[in-house]
Design a protein that fits this description.
The complex is a heterodimer of chains A (about 450) and B (about 425). Chain A is built from 11 helices and 20 strands. Chain A is an alpha+beta fold and about 450 residues long. Chain A folds into 3 domains: about 150 residues, Sandwich (Immunoglobulin-like), CATH 2.60.40; about 180 residues, 3-Layer(aba) Sandwich (Rossmann fold); about 80 residues, Four Helix Bundle (Hemerythrin (Met), subunit A), CATH 1.20.120. In chain A, strands 4, 5, 6, 7, 8, 9 and 10 form a 7-stranded mixed beta sheet that branches. A 6-stranded mixed beta sheet of chain A has the order 2-18-17-11-15-14. In chain A, helix 8 runs antiparallel to helix 9. The longest helix of chain A is centred in the C-terminal third of the chain and has 24 residues. Helix content of chain B is about 25%, strand content about 20%. Chain B contains 10 helices and 13 strands. A 6-stranded antiparallel beta sheet of chain B has the order 1-2-13-12-8-9. A 5-stranded antiparallel beta sheet of chain B has the order 3-4-6-7-11. Classes of the chains: A alpha+beta (about 450), B alpha+beta (about 425). Chain A: It comes from Streptomyces variabilis. Chain A: It holds the Pfam family VWA_3.
Chain lengths: ~450, ~425
């Protein structure tokens, strides 16, 4: 409980796991990079007790809650009530001094509290006023999530704070704007705030919700039973309150003639980052990692380098962590990595390539790399299997989901294995022999799809 | 570079060995026998080296190589201790204790330009900021000459770092006669930080010898102690490896290396070793036979010694080069082998790692590779020998030290 000694700015460390040995002529260098942020000696559970921060002790932050108030939220009526309760629970979890607002989302965005384009500052009075305002929330209208996000962005930008975060709840499809509109809104908001997204019930589109979380570097999940919303919202807000630094980027330097094959987060979830590169000087690029509390994430890099003679050694990549726009005051939406001041967070990791004629050395695969290659394939085959199942290709779906069962079992990903077992009957997990269940609960299928990217770490 | 041998594969301990391979059993061998490297064997008690060692004048007589007991402490009475270390020898040790350059204290100059692409600068980690190539390290190629002793070490063509190390030096015995020292170590590549192990071991053994010899310690005893000192230095590396590191990678071996060393006085030649690094005796007069003076601590050597396999069969086995003895915290019971010889004619002692002898295995092959003027131009000869290994493929790090026999007073060495 000794949170008082905790520093507000976490210390970052970078660890590289790789087999640096390549055979003669070898080009592909794989590495798993673990990035860990620690806040000065206290345990990670500090984030679970945010109320122990006194005002001013935690980082300055602003949060906007976006609650779906479309007509469907009244079916069943408990859904709207649960959403109100969950939002109230999240407001109770706000640290004193944090800026916040509540937006009711329909085919347009309406500021429920405090209104007029302002943010309230969390305290006993404002919390109470906000909860009063929530009671007036009713259901009616359509769904245009892009407008909610743009409103949240405008509100969050009005505060001079370190952490900007959104929490979004929807129960239906994004029917009242085009997919392009939502995509444009996500692009406009990317890098300006982070956002967790939740789908309640089973009438929403998994790919829409996961795209919001992915684009805005937050988490996605399903809350199939609206009764579970309050607990989930509390947890989400606790995590948001635990964030200590925003806009961290992974800076990757690679040598001349090298190409970055891919960069992806592989723990706690699989998240493709390759295409989110912003150039950052000669042979370097930045990949956005979002905001960090006390936590650890793993990234899988693959770099293709020009081969060198046996016995030679090359630096295939240098990994460092930077905040491209320290202070966060004047942030731009487009690539701004080139100019301005950049705060380097100190930690770096070296990914090496060493050419050898020792076959035993060059053919062994690093256990971390092997593990996360498997976890990434797991997420992929679940997605493919469910897509094939939807279009009626039962043989294809069985093959993909069978492979998923095999991978989940072999890697010890018990949570995903359990979710798979609700969609297929497992005959033999080791060989991936499965039969598709004839009747699958919609909630089970959506849960599997939403959580397919969750990974486990290597058993040590 | 040899992997450590599997303890379970270790054959039964071979019996005492006497013969030096490559020496004809009859005729007039200048070099008939090596000392029994196994201390358990009772001493053959022929000529006590210490009786004649300080006086090199009688070397003209074909004194038979004298098997001297492994631990001559008991017979140390013959060694004169009429001068204290501080009188004469003390300074010698200090001068030569830090010969091998430490790459960590001599980083690349910051503004250096890459040797690979000639376009980028070299960063603090030793890589080119443009093409990423690692820059040559100090240890990639090392040369040193101390009086009449010279050594050269090279990374070779197939390994990315040099895990060999050497140390050479000269000092004087209490009677004022010169003595040359050479130590060569080969890091065990399957262990962690083999480069640090070889560096620590070579420095510690050299320092120990240069300290003990001027004080009158018998060279063979000094050799025994030097190997123990080297062993302690390598063990200390394992200790300083943090608890955290050990928990992170418990499967990693403790740092380890081989060692081979030679001490040459006016009349005596003492060698000591653990592992598969070797010494060879190459007489200046090539009509006399050359000889290998060490017996590898290797799987193949043990199989042959135990009579379980023929030499050809044993060396063709994939386990042939697995070493059965090394310095390091995880070593089996440490058995420093030492042997003393009294060559009856001038020659040169080749002290080397397997990176060289893989390309000149037999004593005759080695003699062929050693230039005729090796005793006069040891540094040149050492370079030639490294070149021989590189021409052969340079598959391993290559290190060789050359020590002319007999030792001659400083200044009178090279002609």
């Amino acid at each position: 409980m000794a949170i008082f000694s905790k520093s507000n700015v976490p210390r970052f460390s970078v660890d590289v796991y790789q087999n640096e040995y390549l055979p003669e002529g070898g080009r592909l260098v794989n590495a798993v990079v673990t990035v860990t942020a620690t806040g000065g000696g206290t345990i990670g559970s500090a984030v679970a007790a945010p109320h122990l921060y006194s005002p001013g002790e935690g980082p300055s932050a602003a949060v906007v809650l976006m609650v779906d108030c479309s007509g469907s939220m009244d079916h069943p009526p408990t859904k709207m009530r649960n959403a109100r309760d969950a939002t109230a629970a999240a407001i109770d979890t706000l640290r004193d001094g944090v800026h916040f607002a509540v937006v009711a989302g329909t085919h347009l965005a309406r500021e429920v509290y405090p209104g007029d384009g302002r943010l309230a500052v969390a305290g006993p009075d404002t919390r109470e006023q906000a909860k009063q305002a929530l009671r007036k929330l009713g259901a009616g209208g359509g769904t245009a999530i892009g407008t909610w996000l743009r409103r949240a962005d405008r509100l969050l930008a009005s505060a001079d704070v370190a952490i900007r975060h959104g929490i979004l709840l929807t129960d239906g499809r994004n029917e009242h704007e085009s997919p392009e509109d939502l995509k444009a809104a996500l692009d406009a908001c990317a890098g300006r705030f982070t956002c967790d997204a939740r789908g309640v019930g089973t009438d929403w589109e998994v790919k829409e919700v996961t795209a919001i979380a992915s684009g805005l570097l937050g988490t996605a999940d399903i809350v199939a039973d609206p009764g579970g919303l309050a607990a989930d919202f509390t947890r989400m807000m606790e995590t948001a309150m635990g964030k200590e630094v925003a806009d961290v980027s992974l800076r990757l330097w690679t040598p001349a003639g090298a190409t970055v094959t891919f960069v992806k987060q592989v723990a706690p979830t699989v998240e493709e980052l390759t295409d989110r590169r912003t150039e950052a000087g000669p042979r370097a690029g930045d990949y956005p990692l979002g905001s960090w509390g006390d936590e650890s994430r793993d990234y899988h890099l693959c770099v293709e380098v020009p081969p060198a003679a046996v016995g030679r050694e090359m630096l295939a990549a240098r990994v460092s962590l930077v905040i491209p726009h320290p202070g966060g005051a004047s942030r731009s939406t487009a690539a701004g990595g080139g100019g301005g001041s950049v705060q380097n967070l100190g930690a770096q990791g070296l990914v090496r390539a060493v050419w050898t004629d020792d076959l035993a050395a060059s053919t062994s695969i690093n256990p971390q790399v092997a593990h996360y290659t498997g976890q990434a394939e797991l997420a992929e085959v679940i997605q493919e299997g469910l897509d094939l199942r939807k279009v009626g290709d039962m043989d294809g779906a069985t093959a993909k989901l069978g492979r998923a069962v095999q991978l989940a079992s072999a890697s010890g990903n018990a949570d995903t294995a359990k979710l798979l077992a609700k969609v297929v009957d497992v005959v033999d997990a080791a060989t991936g022999t499965v039969r598709l269940k004839t009747k699958v609960e919609e909630a089970d299928e959506m849960t599997l799809e939403t959580r397919s990217t969750k990974t486990v770490r290597v058993k040590k | 570079m040899s992997p450590k041998g599997d303890g379970a594969a270790r054959p039964a301990a071979p019996g005492p060995q006497a013969a030096v391979p490559g020496i004809p059993g009859t005729g007039a061998p200048a070099y008939p026998a090596a000392a029994d490297p196994h201390p358990a064997a009772p001493d053959a008690q022929s000529v006590s080296a210490s009786d004649t060692a300080p006086t090199g004048a009688d070397a003209a007589a074909p004194v038979q190589g004298a098997p001297v007991q492994d631990r001559p402490a008991a017979s140390g009475a013959g060694v004169r201790l009429d001068r204290r270390a501080s009188d004469e020898g003390g300074g010698g040790g200090d001068d030569y204790t830090l010969q091998a350059p430490d790459p960590r204290v001599a980083p690349e100059p910051h503004a250096a330009v890459c040797v690979a692409c000639r376009a980028g600068r070299v960063d603090d980690d030793g890589y080119c900021e443009n093409c990423g190539h690692a820059q040559p390290r100090e240890r990639d190629h090392m040369e040193q000459e101390r009086g009449p002793v010279a050594a050269v070490s090279d990374r070779g063509l197939r390994h990315h770092r040099n895990e060999d190390a050497f140390a050479v030096g000269t000092t004087t015995l209490p009677d004022g006669s010169p003595v040359s020292v050479a130590v060569v170590c080969d890091g065990v590549s399957s262990a962690t930080r083999p480069d640090e192990a070889s560096l620590a071991a070579s420095r510690a053994a050299n320092a120990s010898l240069l300290d003990a010899l001027p004080r009158g310690t018998h060279p063979q005893q000094a050799m025994h102690e030097a190997i123990l000192a080297a062993s302690e230095a390598v063990n200390a590396l394992a200790d300083e490896q943090g608890v955290e590191a050990r928990e992170h990678a418990p499967q990693q071996n403790a740092p380890a290396c081989t060692i081979v060393a030679a001490v040459v006085t006016a009349g005596l030649l003492v060698v000591g070793w653990v592992g598969d690094s070797r010494t060879y005796w190459i007489p200046v007069d090539r009509s006399a036979p050359a000889a290998r003076l060490t017996e590898d601590d290797s799987w193949a050597a043990q199989m042959v010694a135990a009579g379980l396999m023929g030499e050809a069969e044993a060396y063709a086995d994939h386990r042939a080069h697995a070493i059965t003895g090394w310095l390091g915290a995880d070593a089996y019971e440490l058995e420093p082998h030492t042997a003393a010889f009294k060559p009856d004619r001038p020659g040169v002692v080749v002290v080397c790692t397997d990176g060289l002898w893989n390309y000149a295995e037999s004593a005759d092959e080695m003699a062929e590779a050693v230039p005729a003027d090796a005793a006069e131009r040891p540094l040149h000869a050492a370079r030639v020998l490294v070149g021989h290994a590189l021409d052969g493929g340079g598959h391993d790090n290559v290190t060789v030290a050359l020590v002319p026999f007999p030792a001659v007073p400083q200044g009178a060495g090279s002609a």
